[in-house]
Every structure is written in C-alpha cells, then in structure tokens.
Amino acid sequence: MAWKTLDDLDLAGKTVLTRVDINVPMEAGRVTDMTRIERIIPTLRDIVAKGGRPVLLAHFDRPKGKVVPEMSLAPLAAPLAEALGSPVVFCNETIGPKAAAAVAALPNRATLLLENTRFHAGEESNDAGFADALAALGDIYCNDAFSAAHRAHASTEALAHRLPSCAGRLMQSELSALEAALSAPERPVIAVVGGAKVSTKLDLLGNLIDKVDMIVIGGGMANTFLAAQGINVGKSLCEHDLADTARAIMARAAQQNCDLILPTDVVVAREFRAHAANETVPATACPEDAMILDAGPMSVARIEGAFARAKTLVWNGPLGAFELEPFNMATNAAARAAAQLTREGKLLSVAGGGDTVAALNAAGVAEDFTYVSSAGGAFLEWMEGKTLPGVAALNN
Ligand code: 3PG
Ligand code: MG
Description:
Layout: E1 15-19, E2 26-27, E3 30-31, H1 35-49, E4 53-57, H2 77-84, E5 88-91, H3 97-104, E6 111-114, H4 121-124, H5 128-135, E7 140-143, E8 165-167, H6 169-183, E9 189-193, H7 202-211, E10 214-217, H8 220-228, H9 243-255, E11 259-261, E12 265-269, E13 278-282, E14 291-295, H10 297-309, E15 312-316, H11 329-343, E16 348-351, H12 354-363, E17 371-372, H13 377-383, H14 389-394
Parallel strand pairs: 1-4, 1-7, 4-6, 5-6, 7-8, 9-10, 9-15, 10-11, 15-16, 16-17
Antiparallel strand pairs: 2-3, 12-13, 12-14
Helix pairs in contact: 1-2, 8-9, 10-11, 11-12
Bound molecules: 3-phosphoglyceric acid (3PG) and magnesium ion.
C-alpha cells in the first residue's frame, strides 16, 4: 500500500487531526447503532498509546454549510467516551480561536471532538481556506473515515495535502478487505448485486462484469432483466425504459464469460406489505396483477450452488424486499449459506452498503462474514472501480 499508517509517523506529543465517520443512526438523541463508533476505537487508542493527542473531525448528516443545532456532534461525546473508556471533550466550534484553545487545553490521554465540519460551507466545497484553518489546529492528519472517502471535502481531501498524513486502522482494514476481494482475489469470484433499481447499479455492473466470474442479480433490479428478456413481470417494480441497457449488460457479460444469475422462480404478492398473501411461481409466470417480492427456493438453491463453487464473494444489496417478512427469505438463506462457507474456510466474503449490512444483521450472520464494510456509498464507488478522493489524497 502506498499510504502511511500510524506506525510510520512519530506521534509523540503531536496533535493528530483524525477524520472519523460517526454519522451514526440516532433516535431521540440516542445512538441506535454503535458500529461506526466502535470501529474507530483501535485508531484512537493507538494514537494515545503512541503519545499523540487525538482531535476528531467528523460530519453528521447534511446541514449544508449552516449551523443546524439538531445536527450537532455534542450528543456523540458521551457514547464515544464510553466506547473508548477515556474522556472525550467536546468543543462547539470546528475551527478558530475557540477550537485552538480547546486543543491546547486538552488533558493528557483525553480525546477532543470538534463540532460538525459540515456546519461550514468550506467543508463540502473542499475550500482551501477552511482546510488551512483545520490544518492550523494540528501537526498530523490521520484519515480513518473510509466511509466518507468518496467525498472530496476539506476534512477528507484537502487536509491531506497540508499535513503529514496517514491512514487510520479502520481505513487500513477496509482497504485491505476490499483489495483481497476485488484487486487480487482467489477465483472464482462471485458478486451479489441486489436492490431496487438497475439505474443506480449500472456503473457497478459494468465494472464487475470485467472483474468477477459470476453475478447474482437480485431485488427489484432482477425484474428489469427478466422484462428485458420478454418476460411479463406484472405489477413488479421494473425499469422498463432500461430494457436496452439490461440487454447490453447481458450481452457484454456473455462476451466476458461472466455468468449472470437471475431468479428462475419468484415469490409474488398482490400487496407490498409484510405478511401479504403470497405464492411461489416460475419467474416466467408472474400473474398480471401481482408483483415479485423475493426470489424463490429454486433460485436460492442455485445461488447456494454458485457460492459453493466460488472462492471469493462480494455482496451489495438484498435479493428481495428484505424489510418485509417473509420476503426476506432468499436474502436470509443466501446470507446464511455464505456465512457457513466462510466459517468452514471455503469462502472469503466481503459485504457492504447500507441495506446490505442491515440485511446481514437481520439474518444474524454479519459476524460470520470475512469483512463487513462500515461504508455505504464509498463501498459502492470502490466496487464501481472509482478512485476515492479521500484515499487518493493519502497517497501523496
Ligand atoms: C455515510 O453515512 O454514508 C457517510 O457518512 C457519508 O455521508 P454522506 O452521504 O452524507 O456524504
Ligand atoms: Mg449516505
């Protein structure tokens, strides 16, 4: 890897501006999923252990360059301190004299959390002046926010050009997991690409066709592929205007020897709600007044067979309407099969993307995957083969 890590820089007595992603789900002022907070702890502990003083830069939600009190990072100081097992001081400014004073006053072994970087318009515009003001607060820049690395913002990009920089531990583990899965994987490689719409996954499919040996297409987007083959999908979610695109993808996949695995049987219902009356029919026999909400058991068996032949799996997106029972059956069954093969040491499995992680957690198998990314958009962009500005900036 071309970038430095915390082991390559002398942190003793240094203020380490550490970009983290603690954009966590919250309800009524309480964190409902601690994953992103827990995952930055090794970095913060290592900085302190090496004599550094961690000063955290982070965004929360999308305040669009204005101070939005509900989007303050203040409520995150306590859960962070609890996870860390050491004090976290919060400063309600991000830059300027008050932030500088808070840095100077930071007690030994404590961590400073500065206010939401996105309260300043200069954050999202990657503004040089705002980046200079951030850089003035510290000696070293550590980026541990892989999940925000697809944004070229001042705290994820410009800052890396202003201070000696390194990747944090979470950034390191995200990048090594993704490299193992896509850059130099053990073959055959299988990808699961699910979700509602093909239109949001065109770049992903385009990149994967060149890199992987099999692609399981699931969720609403599978309907578009079925319809493009002249199959009637009734009232199913389907992007009929993308039929040509879907046919072009199928043709290119055939050319590249990439197997596209579409459902052969489907679970259909008349209503889009949990426990709606449903039946399983061949994928070619969706009734006119019904919609496809999940892949059927034959399809799942085929997917499981493909997993068993593969050595590497990358997974993005559910196979059905997993948020509605029982239309989570295909996703759960396939996820359990992947988890089992991983436990047996037969498969390296990497998953990412918001819905995906929620689906794997619901199936109770996230722990068994080789790696589950903390990233949504950044994971997708990496899988699309795009350069992530936050990662590229560390390579200087
Ligand atoms: C995320 O939650 O995916 C990251 O924190 C990035 O947030 P954003 O999509 O608002 O840039
Ligand atoms: Mg997001």
